[in-house]
Amino acid sequence: MKNFKNENIKIVYHGFVEIIYQAAIIEDKGITFAETYNIINNYEQSKNRIDRDKADIIVGLKRAYQYVIDRANDDNPVIVYDIRHINKLIDFYEEDNAGKWRSDSVRIHGSSRIPTTLGTDGSISFVESKMKINSFEEGVISLAKLCKQQLFPNGNKRTGLCFTNLCLLKKDLPVIQVVDRAKYVEKLVNYYEDEGKLNEFVEFVKTESLGEENK
């Protein structure tokens, strides 16, 4: 039996398909739990029955969360390399750009905002400032800011979620969950448009992940 450093890592390990499904539907709302389960557990038998783009999203997240669990369970602190490696695993099908800091301007889907380009040093400093998480709420705030900054050419919402959950697990805190995909994306995009909407996103995610009574 696998040994875990804390109970929250164990929960993610035993809920592996669910945590990947929650991240996958952020990118493609058409992905089903059954498709996620089949790709994770029966890839060779399932890959020809599922849309290739969907399969790539699920496979990338499977690799990323395997990495998250292993890293959360070791004795080394979170470092900037982790977020780049997570993006590389998630966005593996974009070989030229996966794991590389964004260097061009980008428009966020569903938003009119165009985030600044930070460059290598700026991106490293930005991530370092978001790794210092000591509570669940601080984790949600870091997630929102990582997503809004769009550090990578692709896969930023999935990367931000996986990386933030790694930071939370290192502190023996519960992970962020995406239960209502539509409201999650809506409130995140609202924050992209208006900094003053951050608290609405934070409170929504706290309720979704911890329950009204525990947030």
Radius of gyration: 16 Å
Distance between the termini: 32 Å
**In which range does the helix fraction lie?**
55-70%
SSE topology string: HHHHHHHHHHH
Kindly report the oligomeric state of this protein.
Answer: single chain
Derived structural class:
mainly alpha
Outline type: globular
User: Average pLDDT value?
Assistant: 93
Count of beta strands: 0
Draw up the topology in text.
Blueprint lengths: L6 H8 L1 H12 L5 H9 L1 H4 L5 H21 L7 H11 L28 H12 L5 H14 L6 H15 L10 H13 L4 H13 L5
Features:
mainly alpha; 215 residues
Question: Overview of this structure, please?
Answer:
With 215 residues, the protein is mainly α. 61% of the residues lie in helices and 0% in strands. It is globular.
Write a brief structural summary.
61% of the residues lie in helices and 0% in strands.
